[in-house]
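The pair is quoted verbatim below.
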Amino acid sequence: MAPSTCTRLTTLLLAHNNFLTIPESFFEHMPEIEILDLSFNWWLSSLPNSVFKLEKLTTLLLESTSLEKVPSLSGLGSLKKLNLRETEIEEVPEGLGILKNLKCLFLSGSNYDNILEIDEIADEILSNFSKLQEVIVNWSRIKLKGDVVGRLKKLEVFHGWFPTTNEMRIFLKRQPNRLSDYFIHVGSNLNVFYYVITELPRYKKIMVFKETSILGENMLIPSVQELCIEACLDIRSLNDFSVIKDATDLRRCLIRNCDGMECVLSSWINNPVVQSLKYLHAV
């Protein structure tokens, strides 16, 4: 790949090209670029610094590359979408916290066998993102705090992990039932059972509980479409979720190794949850 001079170029789509490297000066004469897609260049392990001097860049897509580290993002003040899914990075990129125009942040692995090794995003970084609409940080080791994520008032899409039910309760109190797309893990993060069993078409509103207590108020989003419960020993039936009667969009329910469970539901007759349910797997 040779350096280019394209002073009017605003969109550059270079996904699926099997790049190994990109010359340091490649982007130096492309000052107008707003959208840059380098996704699915599996062997690309580094980027030239010239990428991070594109002041007008609004979208940077680096999904499914071998990047272990990215240079400072501090020069990308116009950035609105950053996708670092399925990369090899182990630390939050420097300068992430100053991207106050960011609307979409994707930092995740792909499944339980490909976990993103980042384990923390500082509270003050997330707190700066008042415009965030989409946050996808699941299949990672990032432990989220309900209070911090709950302050993101424009949030519409959320995929992430709360290590405790208390953090999730706090999140739900701050975030009314307005998410259009969510995949929320609660408890133990690495849910092999869920990944293996869900080869069926996926729904957009998913909650996964593993090895945690589910008793108490504010434990379930009423709009949930798919519910997975594994090794939650205190659950006796789905009625232990105080809002289960309002979960009339529930389509799929997966239950495994919940030894204290006495029945799935206390009543099946004229139950709106039963009428909406399409798939029940309980072992």
Remarks:
- The radius of gyration is 21 Å.
- The first strand starts at residue 11 and ends at 13.
